[in-house]
């Protein structure tokens, strides 16, 4: 399984109009990939953005759908509404289960760590040793490493609330469960985005 994280930008007020169109596009059997999640960022850069996570069976399916989107005059069926589009390809950490839709939290955190050169292997080794203990406190939606662009990982965590997020993260540090060994040492810089599931999101 491979994954695509797309960021779709719209003029202010355009998100709600786009959602039913995106639902229809991703449900079309002729379109590659499987919609896993659709979120609207709440903190950071806000207003008119959607994060779209899709899963693909293999590299060929991902490449064909990427070609279709990039060459389309109406990408995702919302081309006339789009103000911007970026797509990123990811592979899962090999020791984690596939992303499965379901109800996991009211808010999701997307954390992206841009890694130092050579930092991916030690980062994944640290995660493999530590993630079981960390996920006893709260679930992990996905741990992914980028297949294009700068070396980086993106991990997605659902929480019941922002207060629950803070409490879980503090507990993980206090108990020595997190961060993983070689985690902070491998990070060049990091970003975090809080996003809310939209009504069309299979992950909620």
Overview of the structural elements:
The protein folds into 2 domains: 2-92, 2-Layer Sandwich (Alpha-Beta Plaits), CATH 3.30.70.100; 107-197, 2-Layer Sandwich (Alpha-Beta Plaits), CATH 3.30.70. The relative contact order is 0.22. The mean pLDDT is 95. 26% of the residues lie in helices and 32% in strands. A hairpin with a 7-residue loop joins strand 2 and strand 3. It is α+β, with helices and mostly antiparallel strands and 204 residues long. The radius of gyration is 17 Å and the shape is globular. The protein starts with a strand and ends in a 7-residue tail after the last strand. It has an 8-stranded antiparallel beta barrel.
Strand portion, in percent? 25-35%
The biggest sheet amounts to: 8 strands, antiparallel, barrel
How would you state the average pLDDT, rounded?
95
Q: Report, as a whole number of angstroms, the end-to-end distance.
A: 21 Å
**Number of domains as seen in the coordinates:** 2
What is the CATH level 1 assignment of the largest domain? Alpha Beta
| Overall geometry | globular
* SSE pattern: EHEEHEEHEEHE
* Class computed from helices, strands and strand pairing: alpha+beta
Number of helices: 4
Brief write-up:
With 204 residues, this protein is of the alpha+beta class.
Q: Features of this protein?
A:
204 residues, Alpha-Beta Plaits, alpha+beta, 8 strands, eight-stranded antiparallel β-barrel, 2 domains
Task: Please render the helix and strand layout as text.
Elements: E1 2-9, H1 15-27, E2 34-41, E3 49-56, H2 59-71, E4 84-92, E5 107-115, H3 120-134, E6 142-146, E7 152-159, H4 162-174, E8 187-197
Antiparallel strand pairs: 1-3, 1-4, 2-3, 2-8, 4-6, 5-7, 5-8, 6-7
């Amino acid at each position: 399984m491979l994954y695509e994280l797309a960021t779709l930008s719209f003029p202010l007020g355009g998100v709600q109009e786009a959602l039913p169109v995106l639902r229809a596009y991703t449900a079309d059997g002729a379109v590659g990939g499987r919609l896993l999640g659709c979120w609207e960022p709440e903190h950071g850069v806000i207003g008119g953005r959607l994060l779209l996570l899709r899963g693909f069976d293999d590299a060929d399916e991902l490449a064909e759908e990427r070609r279709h989107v990039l060459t389309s005059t109406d990408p995702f069926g919302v081309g006339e509404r789009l103000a911007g589009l970026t797509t990123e390809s990811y592979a899962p950490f090999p020791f984690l289960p596939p992303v499965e839709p379901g109800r996991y939290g009211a808010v999701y955190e997307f954390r992206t760590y841009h890694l130092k050169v050579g930092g991916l292997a030690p980062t994944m080794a640290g995660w493999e040793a530590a993630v079981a203990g960390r996920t006893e406190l709260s679930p992990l939606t996905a741990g992914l490493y980028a297949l294009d662009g700068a070396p980086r990982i993106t991990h997605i965590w659902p929480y019941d609330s922002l207060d629950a997020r803070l409490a879980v993260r503090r507990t993980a540090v206090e108990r020595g469960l997190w961060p993983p060994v070689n985690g902070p040492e491998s990070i060049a810089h990091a970003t975090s985005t809080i996003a809310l599931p939209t009504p069309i999101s299979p992950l909620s």
